[in-house]
Amino acid sequence: MAGFFPVLKTDDFVLRELTDDDLEAISSIWGSLKVTEKMSSGPLSHEDSVQMLYVLRSLWDNDAGIRWGVEHGGCLIGTCGFHNINKGARRGELGYELDYAAWGRGFMRKALRPVLDYGFNIMRFERIEAFLNVDNDRSAAVLKKLGFLREGTLREYALTPKGLIDQNCFSLLKRDWKNQ
Asked: Rounded to an integer, what distance in angstroms lies between the CA atom of residue 180 and that of residue 178?
């Protein structure tokens, strides 16, 4: 994967490589209790956000995945992309987060469409998975609108600052995406 980082554009969004200039926005997003309360992590400190930005950026360079910055109106409002890739099984895990101020406007659903196309058509995935905390109803609704199916609950699957929690597994198959 490493090499030229792909930029994806829609009428509303530019999905682009994350840069050091995004640290303030990343720190605000990942530092928000509202954003992180439904995720496996708690709010990140500024120092932890520096590390998170490094991790997200290194996915591409290490051929371990890809994470786009989601830009709307010239501002970074979130990130999305793939990690935990299994090339042999032709699958990857989808991850994303969105600044709280941008919630409720369908932004992530719209931004994920070209990302899913990229995963199926360029990365050649046959299956894309997403794992959500069982109480993350808003994110589950986004996935369902994109055609993901809930496969089941993984008991005590994720370790959080509050202990082990259950997560729901969602999946989208290439054949189902093509038929939408």
From this structure: 6
> Is 155 a member of any domain?
no
Question: What CATH number is given to the structural domain containing 57?
Answer: 3.40.630.30
Cite the DSSP H helix spans in 62-168: 107-121, 137-145
Q: What tokens appear for 78 in the block?
A: 């979130």
Q: What are the pLDDT digits (tens) for 100-131?
A: 999 999 999 999 999 999 999 999 999 999 99
Q: What is the pTM of this model?
A: 0.94
CA atoms within 13 A on the CB side of 74: 0
Confirm whether 105 is domain-assigned: yes
Going from the C-alpha of 109 to that of each of 11, 59, 89, 140, the distances in angstroms are 14, 22, 26, 11
